[in-house]
Backbone:
């Protein structure tokens, strides 16, 4: 809002009586400062931060952008691009990871515990809240026998924890080398190698390295410390 400062001079009128009396000495000029506010003020347009229609959906459900609580957490949503098992973009370019406030707070706690262990490490969120209609799209797009499909993807009619924003897919990045820690299997790997129950079996067979197993244990440790099961 711009202000303009204007000066007004108010001379005091000199009155002379009809009778011949001594003239009244002139009074001093009084200067008043008046501020005038312009009636038309240019307002800068509000910057548009939303990059996807899903952000409007999540905000309507009072979900929280986790990086608004801890900006050191990295986000690389795999379903916002084509680097996923279906090779399709389901999130329309979404760049933020949304969760209920309590879940977002726990993820921040996990990041804190991880930083205490190694300041160069950071959590990387690969998937967060997932709307039910996106779950349906994924289910319909996955060409896999039903018995295997149920093991790796929740059917849309059951509603998964991802639909409530109460599940998170994540990994760890080493910021000193700008590389993701080796976990033994890639994101969305459909096979027993990604299942914790078979880790010792694959460690003995050499299909899972000791380094990858230790990295998995580290991730589980910080998540369990933050009260994730």
Residues:
């Amino acid at each position: 809002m711009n202000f303009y400062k204007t000066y007004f001079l108010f001379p005091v009128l000199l009155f002379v009586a009809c009778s011949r009396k001594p003239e009244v000495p002139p009074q001093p000029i009084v200067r008043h400062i008046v501020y005038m506010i312009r009636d038309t003020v240019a307002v800068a347009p509000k910057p548009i931060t939303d990059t996807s229609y899903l952000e409007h959906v999540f905000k309507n459900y009072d979900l929280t952008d986790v990086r608004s609580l801890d900006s050191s957490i990295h986000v690389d949503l795999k379903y916002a691009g084509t680097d996923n098992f279906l090779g399709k973009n389901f999130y329309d370019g979404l760049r933020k990871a949304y969760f209920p406030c309590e879940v977002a707070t726990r993820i921040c706690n996990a990041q804190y515990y991880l930083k205490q262990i190694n300041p160069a490490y950071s959590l990387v969120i690969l998937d967060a809240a997932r709307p039910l209609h996106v779950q349906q799209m994924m289910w319909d797009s996955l060409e896999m026998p039903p018995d295997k499909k149920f093991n790796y993807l929740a059917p849309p009619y059951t509603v998964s924890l991802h639909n409530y924003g109460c599940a998170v897919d994540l990994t760890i990045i080493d910021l000193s080398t700008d590389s993701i820690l080796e976990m033994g299997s890639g994101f969305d790997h459909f096979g027993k190698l990604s299942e914790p129950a078979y880790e010792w079996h694959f460690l003995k067979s050499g299909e899972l390295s000791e380094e990858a197993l230790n990295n998995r244990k580290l991730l589980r440790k910080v998540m369990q410390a933050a009260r994730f099961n």
